[in-house]
Amino acid sequence: MPDTTIIPQRIGRLEELAHNLWWSWHEPARQLFRAVDYSQWRLSGHNPVKQLLAVSKERLEDIADDPSFLAMYDSVMTAFDDDLQKPQTWFAANCAALDKGPVAYFSMEYAIHNSLPIYAGGLGVLAGDICKEASDLGMPMVAVGFMFPQGYFRQQLCNTPNQCQMELYHDLNFDEAPITRLLGPNGEKSITRVKLRNVIVGIGVWLVKAGRTQLYLLDTTIEENPEPYRQLSSRLYIADREIRLQQEILLGIGGVRVLRALGINPIVWHANEGHTAFMMLERAREEVLNGKSFAEAADLVQASTIFTTHTPVMAGHDIFTSGLMENYFNGYWQSLGIDREAFLRLGQYGNTPQDFNMTVLAFKMARQRSAVSKLHGKVTRKMWRPLWPEKPEDEVPIDYVTNGVHMPTWIATELSALFRKHLGDNWLERQDDPKLWDGLEKIPEEAIWNCHQRLKLKLLREILTRMRERWLSGGINGNQMMAMGALFDQQVLTITFARRFTEYKRPGLLFRDIERLKRILTNPTQPVQLVFAGKSHPADFASKALLEKVYNLANDSGFQGRIMFIEDYDVHVSHYLVHSSDVWLNTPRRLQEASGTSGMKAASNGVINLSVLDGWWNEGFNGTNGWAIGKGPDSFRADEEDSTDAAALYDLLEKEIVPLYYQREPDGVPTEWVRLMKRSISSVLPVFCARRMLKQYASRMYVPAAKK
Ligand SMILES: *Cc1c(COP(=O)(O)O)cnc(C)c1O
């Protein structure tokens, strides 16, 4: 723990507030930390734990005596206490059956705030948003994940051929992170243990608070563990299969043991993706230990388990060889009361007895199963139908709950101020009521446009700050400065492609006809600029080559600086981009995007989606709230997908998007465009918010499971 003694008692709870990420989605709390010391706030990367360690004693004494600061402090602390303690919540009114214990949520990654970089992408963002929304709705939730001190890599781009993406790993400074170590009853770091082959591995635990939600992060970096096992929890998504298996044993089996050691007994258990499925086995083992047969134990576990699958591509599911499984679970299956064959069958799919599939295990051990969008539900039922051979495809027992995003996290502060002014102070309480959003009509177009332009200026300043830092650290040339956005123009139509670089998302689709694209971007009166951001998985060489191609084009002065690549895509960069782009581009191969959530963030901020009809956009697009590229999933031909989609994309840009954007009133406001922004917000925000999503999980899955 940091040295707390220097914080004057009158403002002593700043420390507590800094250690609850509640502050990150409540603007008055962010303002409070800004007011503590603005330069330390910036230097800390908006991390108040780090900030408070750096603020001078004199400054703290000054603000502890400053009436305007104290008024702010008192009001934030009151709101904080009220929000964490208020008994009248949506949950209390609607989920009485669930009050016997918390919901346990298991996920490999969580994106709650950038000060805790333990996520790689969308799966983690979803998990983080669920933790926050559970708190807002008053739903008791305990979440379990991993403390990855090195997290996922940080990305830098350079001109070296075949080595465009550099991957940097930084060790997290635990003292500067919003985490608290939990100790065992005798002060020991290891709360519980799991056996990995013949080695007993101790598990340390860090607590992260996100409002009411408690997130427990497992950590093996403790002295009692032999050296290689200390590294186990160091990085996310290690390619090595054996280390992956060890991590998943730790998370699933270790995670249950950690909750038990802390005296927490959840009433329902939600597994986010197959990585977490061993949690179901461990709970079955507990029941067998209590005298149940495996069949009875499995039945109890199934009744209280919810499993959400996220991956519509077979290769994306976690599979371990049965040989590897045998090495780690010989001894464990006996404690489940079953033999080797019965154990391996739990993870078997089709005629591949050599594979143990984590998704199959999860489907078998959870009675409530869900996909993450309507279309993904259909794809998932088709994909896994062999597990229910007696059922027709549309009766395969896999439901869907379409993903959503946590609006207080993702709506720009400037825009939410407009919502507050025109829709009322309680707009967030009513965010999922579509009628509320009819009120957007009343907001003058000019007000929305000015707000959007201010946000675009913020993006520009962020780009310049990053560029200056890279320039000062040396080694970048003029073309690279251009590629980093030196020529970004706030007045120009800005189209953003910000997402993981991977083949199925087709980051190169726009470049199929280079000359046509060049004409669009460099049009002298109606130019367009493209912003790219995204990482390639370190071991995915095909997608690294795609990234290099895009980066080289951004370096090509023939595009006049209209293509830029922002390095190190993460939730911080994502905030700037979803707030201030004009158009949000998504070009997945059909049926391969399970949901996608960045487009929901963008649409809710008035950034117009231009996307293939896949994932959530197949539900979200209504014909008037953005654009669809090419045909829907039912009537396209895979063999011509790239060429027809690219042609459709260029046509839309040339004939509709660019002309509409530059159609201006005498005062410069593009009224029709702003009306489109309003339709985007009103049709997407109330539907694709995490609030709607979590209410559905609760009423359709958690409550029925708890009643059993
Ligand atoms: C929202 C978000 C994602 C997920 O969005 P997709 O549309 O699935 O790409 C991934 N990474 C970051 C940093 C995000 O903020």
Description:
- The structure is a single chain.
- By secondary structure, the protein is of the alpha/beta class.
- It has three domains: 4-85, no CATH class; 90-403 and 694-707, Rossmann fold (3-Layer(aba) Sandwich), CATH 3.40.50.2000; 407-688, Rossmann fold (3-Layer(aba) Sandwich), CATH 3.40.50.2000.
- Helix content is 43%, strand content 13%.
- It has 29 helices and 20 strands.
- The strands form four sheets. Strands 1, 2, 5, 6, 7, 8, 9, 10, 13 and 14 form a ten-stranded mixed beta sheet that branches.
- The structure holds pyridoxal-5'-phosphate.
- Pyridoxal-5'-phosphate binds next to helix 8, helix 24 and helix 25.
What descriptive keywords fit this protein?
708 residues, alpha/beta, Rossmann fold, 10-stranded mixed sheet, 6-stranded parallel sheet, 29 helices, 43% helix, 13% strand, binds pyridoxal-5'-phosphate
- Uncertain parts: none
Q: Based on helices, strands and strand pairing, what is the structural class?
A: alpha/beta
First and last CA, distance: 42 Å
Tally the helices: 29
Second CATH tier, the architecture of the largest domain: 3-Layer(aba) Sandwich
Let me know the CATH homologous superfamily of the largest domain.
Glycogen Phosphorylase B
Q: How large is the radius of gyration?
A: 25 Å
Task: State the shape.
Answer: globular
